[in-house]
Design goal:
heterodimer; A: 311 residues; alpha/beta; 5-stranded antiparallel β-sheet; elongated; B: 301 residues; mainly alpha
Chain lengths: 311, 301
């Protein structure tokens, strides 16, 4: 467990941004999904000590619940959503300075600045002013500043904002590397579903300040009533409309869909086709996309039997 | 040294205390003027009054001789006209007036504070840098203090360190200890007055910078505050025939009156009280406005 929130509520004046949220972020890359205004950034800011929650409890790593913001920030790296840089400084100077403000001695901050800039792929541009960087380079520089003090947990707020496809892919590769090879726990706050699908192993979906779905990505995208897409031969083969625990739908030209119950196994589909006098040329289990999960979750349509917790 | 494929290795160092973390920010602010060619030119311009004072000092010490003979030094304890005191290295006015007299020091202070201090926080706000700073191990108050200290050290380089240097040069060039004996009585108070004057100016400029949205707006506001209040004070003083209005309405004059009192220069009591109130009100008002804009949520959106 990296982060645990218990009955967390955050209010800005009369407006409730986060409403009684209880959630756990496991180690690895976790997606924090939600539409704009869903409460993602508020949760990150509360975790960083920038916003004081109205009620509830938060715990990060093994730090005590009453840990000071400074103690939290020593263990956490934050990549802001907004475009930001330190005016007048080169990439190296910016990362080294922020390393020193995080508490690193001078020599270590310089060494780390070189290392993280190399890691994010800015080694050639590190002595150029950040104000002259492209959007992709600035995002990488922000990631380097989040990494400079070697945090165990990284909060990345919309890291692919404003990036072209190549830049986006590069950023996602870096996030995968951080969560995999380098063993960091990454909380990826975004509204881009493909980013989460590309790098995360678990997801928390927020809507209107509440958690509407959470769990491992593989679990969430597995359907309760499975759909098998199969192709049979001969193409003219006629299958019964109903089989044991499944319903067959003809899509034409030898293609069929088997709408099966959770207990139904692929071998049952094979047996049905054999009994009708044909062979199965291909059989594919259809998985729901994260988009389907997300839209279902925000509409309140998520099936409860899939480790999906309704808030 | 091991070479790592990804150029990244775990960090194992003891982190510095929150106070020591602020020092790089102080240094950054102190050096900010020297990062550009125009900044260096601006700084050299600010040194001009001090260079003129140095020339006068060297001439009075007979190191430079423009007219063939340096002339005898006036007898110790002799009362001299105010204009002559400004050229006498044994008088406190020689060290204080090039910094604090509006006709001599205003340009220097305006260049330094408008180029550095009044831009310090506004330029960070404009680049959204506050979000980067405050998600580190420093607090907004620590950040503000570091910015103020950095700019105060830079301004103090001209307004405090240069007069001190002039005095030390005078002490070393003097033929005997009489120069030291004549000047050591007032120099600590004079330097304290100059430091107070610079510290208050930097504080006002940096608080103004804290609530401005862009560096240029902050610079313009600062110039308007300094010159505008001076102009209004002088105008009202002339119209109403109340000379003390200047010290009460002009930030520069109010600050100068307080600093003069600290430096041991003669100041009218009524003027001093009015000036102290004016400085206190300005500082309080600017602090109130700045602290509203320095809240964490203001910075991180």
């Amino acid at each position: 467990m990296t982060v645990r929130l218990e009955a967390l509520t955050i209010r800005y004046g009369m407006r409730t941004a986060v409403d009684d949220v209880t959630v756990e972020f496991p180690a690895g890359a976790v997606g924090l999904l939600g539409r704009n205004g869903a409460g993602k950034s508020s949760i990150l800011k509360a975790l960083l000590g920038l916003v004081r929650p109205s009620s509830g409890r938060m715990r990060i790593l093994d730090l005590p619940e009453d840990a000071t913001p400074a103690a939290i920030r020593a263990r956490v790296g934050y990549m802001p959503e907004r475009e930001c840089h330190l005016p007048g400084l080169t990439g190296f100077e910016m990362v080294a300075l922020l390393g020193r403000l995080s508490g690193l001695p001078e020599r270590d901050s310089y060494r780390r600045a070189h290392e993280v800039l190399y890691l994010v792929g800015l080694e050639e541009q590190r002595y150029r002013p950040v104000s002259g960087y492209s959007a992709g380079m600035r995002q990488k520089a922000k990631l380097a500043t989040a990494l400079v003090h070697d945090p165990q947990v990284l909060f990345l707020d919309e890291p692919t904002n404003g990036l072209d496809p190549a830049g986006r892919e590069e950023m996602l590769r870096l996030v995968r590397q951080l969560a995999g090879e380098l063993g960091k726990s990454v909380v990826l706050s975004t509204h881009i579903l493909q980013d989460v699908e590309a790098v995360c192993t678990a997801v928390v979906v927020l809507e209107g300040g509440k958690v509407v779905a959470q769990g491992p990505l593989a679990e969430l995208t597995r359907t309760l009533d499975r759909v098998y897409h199969l192709q049979v031969e001969p193409a003219t083969l006629r299958l019964p409309a109903v089989g044991p625990g499944m319903q067959m739908v003809a899509d034409g030209d030898g293609r069929w869909r088997a709408l099966a119950a959770a207990t139904c196994r692929p071998v049952d589909v094979f047996a049905l086709v054999h009994a009708a006098g044909g062979n199965v040329r291909s059989l594919v289990l259809h998985r729901r996309s994260l988009e389907e999960v997300f839209l279902g979750a925000v509409r309140g349509e998520v099936e409860g039997a899939l480790s999906v917790v309704r808030a | 040294m091991t070479i790592y494929g990804v150029g990244y290795r775990p960090l194992q160092v003891a982190l510095l205390s929150p106070v020591r973390r602020l020092w790089p920010l102080v240094v950054l602010e102190f050096k900010s003027l020297f990062r550009t060619r125009w900044g260096v030119v601006g700084f050299l311009l600010c040194l001009m009054p001090q260079i003129v004072s140095l020339m006068v000092l060297l001439a009075r010490m007979n190191v430079l001789n423009f007219i063939g003979h340096g002339g005898p030094r006036p007898p110790r304890g002799m009362r001299m006209p105010d204009e002559a005191l400004r050229l006498d290295p044994t008088a406190v006015q020689f060290y204080v007036e090039p910094i604090m007299a509006p006709n001599q020091g205003l340009t220097t202070m305006l260049i330094l504070t408008a180029m550095v201090t009044s831009r310090a926080i506004a330029k960070d706000r404009g680049a959204n840098a506050l979000e980067l700073y405050w998600t580190r191990g420093i607090s907004p108050l620590g950040y503000f203090f570091a910015k103020w200290l950095g700019s105060f050290l830079l301004v103090g380089l001209v307004t405090v360190a240069m007069p001190l240097l002039l005095w030390l040069i005078g002490v070393f060039l003097a033929e005997d200890w009489s120069f030291f004996q004549d000047t050591v009585k007032f120099m600590p108070r004079a330097l304290l007055g100059l430091a107070t004057f610079s510290a208050v100016m930097c504080y006002c400029a940096i608080t103004l910078s804290a609530f401005a949205n862009s560096a240029n707006i902050a610079s313009i506001l600062w110039c308007l505050l300094l010159i505008g209040s001076l102009a209004v004070g002088n105008m009202l003083a002339g119209i109403l025939h109340q000379p003390e209005f200047v010290a009460r309405l002009s930030l520069w004059d109010a600050n100068m009156t307080v600093a003069n009192a600290i430096a041991g220069l003669p100041v009218r009591a009524s003027n001093l009280n009015g000036a102290m109130v004016a400085v206190a009100v300005t500082v309080a008002l600017l602090t109130f406005l700045a602290q509203r804009r320095m809240r964490l949520l203001e910075a991180v959106g």
